[in-house]
Protein backbone atom coordinates (compact mmCIF):
# COMPACT_ATOMS: atom_id res chain seq x y z
CA UNK A 1 0.00 0.00 0.00
CA UNK A 2 2.82 2.35 0.80
CA UNK A 3 4.24 1.86 -2.71
CA UNK A 4 0.86 2.50 -4.31
CA UNK A 5 0.34 5.66 -2.30
CA UNK A 6 3.81 6.87 -3.19
CA UNK A 7 3.12 6.27 -6.87
CA UNK A 8 -0.18 8.13 -6.66
CA UNK A 9 1.54 11.05 -4.97
CA UNK A 10 4.21 11.16 -7.67
CA UNK A 11 1.60 11.13 -10.43
CA UNK A 12 -0.57 13.79 -8.78
CA UNK A 13 2.36 16.10 -8.09
CA UNK A 14 3.85 15.64 -11.56
CA UNK A 15 0.57 16.33 -13.34
CA UNK A 16 -0.07 19.45 -11.27
CA UNK A 17 3.49 20.70 -11.59
CA UNK A 18 3.65 20.26 -15.35
CA UNK A 19 0.30 22.02 -15.74
CA UNK A 20 1.64 24.91 -13.70
CA UNK A 21 4.75 24.98 -15.85
CA UNK A 22 2.76 24.89 -19.06
CA UNK A 23 0.67 27.80 -17.86
CA UNK A 24 3.73 29.80 -16.84
CA UNK A 25 5.59 29.15 -20.06
CA UNK A 26 2.65 30.33 -22.09
CA UNK A 27 1.50 33.16 -19.88
CA UNK A 28 -0.29 35.36 -22.39
CA UNK A 29 -2.51 38.37 -22.46
CA UNK A 30 -6.14 37.41 -22.27
CA UNK A 31 -8.70 39.48 -24.08
CA UNK A 32 -11.43 40.71 -21.76
CA UNK A 33 -13.94 38.36 -23.40
CA UNK A 34 -12.02 35.28 -22.24
CA UNK A 35 -12.76 36.20 -18.63
CA UNK A 36 -16.50 35.67 -19.01
CA UNK A 37 -17.84 32.46 -17.41
CA UNK A 38 -18.29 29.70 -19.95
CA UNK A 39 -21.94 29.34 -18.93
CA UNK A 40 -22.80 33.02 -19.32
CA UNK A 41 -25.49 33.76 -21.94
CA UNK A 42 -24.47 35.76 -25.00
CA UNK A 43 -24.34 39.49 -24.35
CA UNK A 44 -25.70 41.50 -27.31
CA UNK A 45 -23.48 44.41 -26.29
CA UNK A 46 -20.33 42.30 -26.06
CA UNK A 47 -19.08 42.74 -29.65
CA UNK A 48 -19.06 46.51 -29.26
CA UNK A 49 -17.25 46.26 -25.91
CA UNK A 50 -14.56 44.15 -27.53
CA UNK A 51 -13.89 46.65 -30.28
CA UNK A 52 -10.29 47.82 -30.01
CA UNK A 53 -10.18 50.99 -27.96
CA UNK A 54 -7.19 52.39 -29.77
CA UNK A 55 -7.68 54.59 -32.83
CA UNK A 56 -5.59 56.92 -34.96
CA UNK A 57 -1.91 56.67 -35.96
CA UNK A 58 -0.97 54.51 -32.95
CA UNK A 59 -3.64 51.98 -33.87
CA UNK A 60 -2.47 51.93 -37.49
CA UNK A 61 1.13 51.37 -36.39
CA UNK A 62 0.23 48.51 -34.05
CA UNK A 63 -2.01 46.85 -36.62
CA UNK A 64 0.94 46.86 -39.01
CA UNK A 65 2.96 45.12 -36.30
CA UNK A 66 0.19 42.60 -35.71
CA UNK A 67 -0.01 41.76 -39.42
CA UNK A 68 3.75 41.47 -39.92
CA UNK A 69 4.27 39.33 -36.85
CA UNK A 70 1.30 37.13 -37.68
CA UNK A 71 2.51 36.57 -41.25
CA UNK A 72 5.99 35.58 -40.03
CA UNK A 73 4.45 32.41 -38.62
CA UNK A 74 7.30 31.37 -36.32
CA UNK A 75 10.20 32.64 -34.27
CA UNK A 76 12.92 31.65 -31.86
CA UNK A 77 11.93 32.45 -28.27
CA UNK A 78 13.83 33.01 -25.03
CA UNK A 79 11.85 33.82 -21.91
CA UNK A 80 11.97 34.07 -18.15
CA UNK A 81 8.87 33.75 -16.00
CA UNK A 82 8.24 34.33 -12.30
CA UNK A 83 4.88 33.42 -10.72
CA UNK A 84 5.06 34.68 -7.16
CA UNK A 85 6.64 32.14 -4.84
CA UNK A 86 5.23 29.21 -6.80
CA UNK A 87 7.51 29.01 -9.81
CA UNK A 88 10.29 30.68 -11.71
CA UNK A 89 11.74 29.27 -14.89
CA UNK A 90 13.61 29.91 -18.10
CA UNK A 91 12.48 28.66 -21.52
CA UNK A 92 14.17 28.60 -24.91
CA UNK A 93 13.22 27.13 -28.27
CA UNK A 94 11.02 27.80 -31.27
CA UNK A 95 7.29 28.40 -31.62
CA UNK A 96 5.09 28.48 -34.69
CA UNK A 97 1.62 29.93 -35.11
CA UNK A 98 -0.60 29.07 -38.04
CA UNK A 99 -4.32 28.71 -38.62
CA UNK A 100 -4.19 25.11 -37.37
CA UNK A 101 -2.78 26.06 -33.96
CA UNK A 102 0.38 26.48 -31.93
CA UNK A 103 3.38 24.26 -32.57
CA UNK A 104 6.90 24.22 -31.21
CA UNK A 105 9.52 22.85 -28.88
CA UNK A 106 10.90 24.51 -25.75
CA UNK A 107 13.50 23.51 -23.21
CA UNK A 108 12.29 24.60 -19.79
CA UNK A 109 14.61 24.96 -16.80
CA UNK A 110 13.19 25.33 -13.30
CA UNK A 111 15.05 28.02 -11.40
CA UNK A 112 13.03 28.51 -8.21
CA UNK A 113 9.74 28.37 -6.33
CA UNK A 114 7.75 25.61 -4.67
CA UNK A 115 6.88 23.91 -7.95
CA UNK A 116 10.55 23.78 -8.92
CA UNK A 117 11.36 22.18 -5.57
CA UNK A 118 8.64 19.59 -6.18
CA UNK A 119 9.97 18.79 -9.62
CA UNK A 120 13.51 18.46 -8.28
CA UNK A 121 12.20 15.95 -5.75
CA UNK A 122 11.05 13.89 -8.75
CA UNK A 123 14.51 14.08 -10.30
CA UNK A 124 13.57 16.74 -12.85
CA UNK A 125 15.33 20.11 -13.04
CA UNK A 126 14.63 20.73 -16.74
CA UNK A 127 11.98 19.53 -19.15
CA UNK A 128 11.33 19.45 -22.87
CA UNK A 129 7.90 20.68 -23.91
CA UNK A 130 6.37 20.02 -27.31
CA UNK A 131 3.32 21.87 -28.55
CA UNK A 132 1.05 20.47 -31.25
CA UNK A 133 -2.32 21.83 -32.35
CA UNK A 134 -4.25 19.25 -30.33
CA UNK A 135 -1.99 18.45 -27.38
CA UNK A 136 0.90 19.48 -25.17
CA UNK A 137 3.68 17.00 -24.30
CA UNK A 138 6.08 17.23 -21.34
CA UNK A 139 9.16 15.05 -20.94
CA UNK A 140 9.93 14.12 -17.36
CA UNK A 141 13.17 12.67 -15.97
CA UNK A 142 14.27 9.08 -15.58
CA UNK A 143 13.28 8.96 -11.91
CA UNK A 144 9.73 9.90 -12.77
CA UNK A 145 9.65 7.35 -15.60
CA UNK A 146 10.79 4.60 -13.25
CA UNK A 147 7.78 5.30 -11.05
CA UNK A 148 5.17 5.26 -13.82
CA UNK A 149 6.03 2.23 -15.89
CA UNK A 150 9.09 3.54 -17.68
CA UNK A 151 7.40 6.25 -19.76
CA UNK A 152 9.05 9.66 -19.86
CA UNK A 153 6.46 11.78 -21.69
CA UNK A 154 3.10 13.03 -20.42
CA UNK A 155 0.51 13.93 -23.02
CA UNK A 156 -2.13 16.58 -22.29
CA UNK A 157 -4.92 16.71 -24.87
CA UNK A 158 -6.33 20.23 -24.69
CA UNK A 159 -9.95 19.08 -24.84
CA UNK A 160 -9.35 16.74 -21.92
CA UNK A 161 -7.74 19.51 -19.91
CA UNK A 162 -10.82 21.67 -20.30
CA UNK A 163 -12.82 18.90 -18.58
CA UNK A 164 -10.54 18.63 -15.54
CA UNK A 165 -12.35 18.79 -12.22
CA UNK A 166 -11.96 22.01 -10.29
CA UNK A 167 -11.05 23.98 -13.40
CA UNK A 168 -7.36 23.04 -13.17
CA UNK A 169 -6.96 22.98 -16.94
CA UNK A 170 -9.60 25.51 -17.91
CA UNK A 171 -8.35 27.91 -20.53
CA UNK A 172 -5.09 26.03 -20.97
CA UNK A 173 -5.39 25.71 -24.74
CA UNK A 174 -6.49 29.33 -24.98
CA UNK A 175 -3.42 30.41 -23.04
CA UNK A 176 -1.28 28.41 -25.47
CA UNK A 177 -2.72 30.28 -28.41
CA UNK A 178 -2.16 33.64 -26.72
CA UNK A 179 1.56 33.13 -26.17
CA UNK A 180 2.45 34.10 -29.75
CA UNK A 181 3.85 37.61 -30.29
CA UNK A 182 1.06 38.82 -32.56
CA UNK A 183 -1.42 38.13 -29.74
CA UNK A 184 0.45 40.58 -27.53
CA UNK A 185 -0.19 43.26 -30.12
CA UNK A 186 -3.88 42.34 -30.33
CA UNK A 187 -4.09 42.78 -26.59
CA UNK A 188 -2.52 46.23 -26.76
CA UNK A 189 -5.08 47.27 -29.38
CA UNK A 190 -7.77 46.85 -26.70
CA UNK A 191 -5.94 49.09 -24.20
CA UNK A 192 -7.27 52.59 -23.65
CA UNK A 193 -3.98 53.81 -22.21
CA UNK A 194 -1.58 52.43 -24.83
CA UNK A 195 1.23 54.81 -25.63
CA UNK A 196 4.39 55.02 -27.67
CA UNK A 197 7.17 55.27 -25.09
CA UNK A 198 9.97 56.06 -27.54
CA UNK A 199 12.95 54.70 -29.44
CA UNK A 200 15.29 52.27 -27.66
CA UNK A 201 18.07 49.83 -28.44
CA UNK A 202 17.06 46.25 -27.68
CA UNK A 203 19.61 43.49 -28.06
CA UNK A 204 21.58 45.68 -30.42
CA UNK A 205 18.58 46.55 -32.59
CA UNK A 206 16.77 49.84 -32.88
CA UNK A 207 13.22 49.39 -31.64
CA UNK A 208 10.06 51.33 -30.82
CA UNK A 209 8.71 50.75 -27.32
CA UNK A 210 4.93 50.57 -26.77
CA UNK A 211 3.13 50.09 -23.44
CA UNK A 212 -0.43 49.63 -22.23
CA UNK A 213 -2.73 48.00 -19.67
CA UNK A 214 -5.04 45.15 -20.73
CA UNK A 215 -7.46 42.82 -19.04
CA UNK A 216 -9.94 44.83 -17.02
CA UNK A 217 -10.29 43.74 -13.38
CA UNK A 218 -7.18 41.53 -13.46
CA UNK A 219 -5.18 44.07 -15.38
CA UNK A 220 -1.79 43.28 -16.83
CA UNK A 221 0.79 45.72 -18.10
CA UNK A 222 2.13 44.78 -21.52
CA UNK A 223 5.23 46.34 -23.07
CA UNK A 224 6.54 45.47 -26.52
CA UNK A 225 9.61 46.55 -28.48
CA UNK A 226 9.25 46.48 -32.27
CA UNK A 227 11.98 46.67 -34.93
CA UNK A 228 11.93 48.45 -38.29
CA UNK A 229 10.33 45.40 -39.94
CA UNK A 230 7.34 45.66 -37.59
CA UNK A 231 8.40 42.49 -35.76
CA UNK A 232 8.48 42.09 -32.00
CA UNK A 233 11.96 41.89 -30.48
CA UNK A 234 10.89 41.87 -26.84
CA UNK A 235 7.77 41.58 -24.71
CA UNK A 236 7.36 42.17 -20.97
CA UNK A 237 4.16 41.26 -19.20
CA UNK A 238 3.35 42.06 -15.57
CA UNK A 239 0.28 41.26 -13.52
CA UNK A 240 -1.07 39.26 -10.62
CA UNK A 241 -2.05 35.61 -10.24
CA UNK A 242 -3.56 33.69 -7.34
CA UNK A 243 -0.03 32.92 -6.16
CA UNK A 244 1.34 36.45 -6.41
CA UNK A 245 3.01 38.69 -8.94
CA UNK A 246 3.53 37.44 -12.47
CA UNK A 247 6.41 38.76 -14.57
CA UNK A 248 7.39 37.37 -17.93
CA UNK A 249 10.04 38.69 -20.29
CA UNK A 250 10.33 37.18 -23.77
CA UNK A 251 12.73 37.85 -26.64
CA UNK A 252 11.91 36.93 -30.24
CA UNK A 253 14.34 36.42 -33.12
CA UNK A 254 14.89 34.44 -36.32
CA UNK A 255 11.34 34.94 -37.59
CA UNK A 256 10.26 32.32 -40.12
CA UNK A 257 12.48 29.63 -38.58
CA UNK A 258 11.57 26.00 -39.23
CA UNK A 259 9.62 24.61 -36.27
CA UNK A 260 10.23 20.98 -35.27
CA UNK A 261 7.05 19.61 -33.71
CA UNK A 262 7.18 15.84 -33.66
CA UNK A 263 5.00 13.71 -31.44
CA UNK A 264 7.05 11.71 -28.93
CA UNK A 265 7.16 7.91 -29.36
CA UNK A 266 3.84 6.39 -28.35
CA UNK A 267 5.59 3.68 -26.36
CA UNK A 268 7.32 6.29 -24.22
CA UNK A 269 4.21 8.42 -23.67
CA UNK A 270 1.53 8.31 -20.96
CA UNK A 271 -1.75 10.16 -21.30
CA UNK A 272 -2.37 12.32 -18.27
CA UNK A 273 -5.92 10.91 -18.00
CA UNK A 274 -4.45 7.42 -17.66
CA UNK A 275 -2.12 8.65 -14.94
CA UNK A 276 -4.97 10.27 -13.06
CA UNK A 277 -7.05 7.13 -13.39
CA UNK A 278 -4.19 5.10 -11.96
CA UNK A 279 -4.47 7.08 -8.73
CA UNK A 280 -7.95 5.69 -8.09
CA UNK A 281 -7.20 2.27 -9.59
Walk me through what this model shows.
Helix content is 31%, strand content 35%. With 281 residues, the protein is α+β, with helices and mostly antiparallel strands. It has a twelve-stranded mixed β-sheet with strand order 7-8-9-10-11-1-2-3-4-5-6-12. β7 (195-202) and β8 form a beta hairpin. α1 (2-25) crosses α4 and α3 runs antiparallel to α8 (181-188).
Continuous helix count: 9
Query: Biggest sheet, open or closed, and with what strands and sense?
Result: 12 strands, mixed
Shape verdict: elongated
Helix percentage range: 25-40%
Poorly predicted regions are 27-52
Proportion of residues in β-strands = 25-35%
Estimate the mean pLDDT confidence.
Answer: 80
Secondary structure layout plus pairing:
Elements lengths: L1 H24 L20 H4 L7 H16 L1 E10 L3 E12 L2 E12 L1 H8 L4 E6 L3 E5 L2 H6 L5 E5 H5 L9 H6 L3 H8 L6 E8 L2 E10 L5 E7 L5 E10 L2 E10 L15 E3 H9 L1
Parallel strand pairs: 6-12
Antiparallel strand pairs: 1-2, 1-11, 2-3, 3-4, 4-5, 5-6, 7-8, 8-9, 9-10, 10-11
Helix pairs in contact: 1-4, 1-9, 3-8
In short:
With 281 residues, the protein is an alpha+beta fold. Helices cover 31% and strands 35% of the residues.
What distinguishing features does this structure have?
twelve-stranded mixed sheet; single chain; alpha+beta; 31% helix; 9 helices; 281 residues
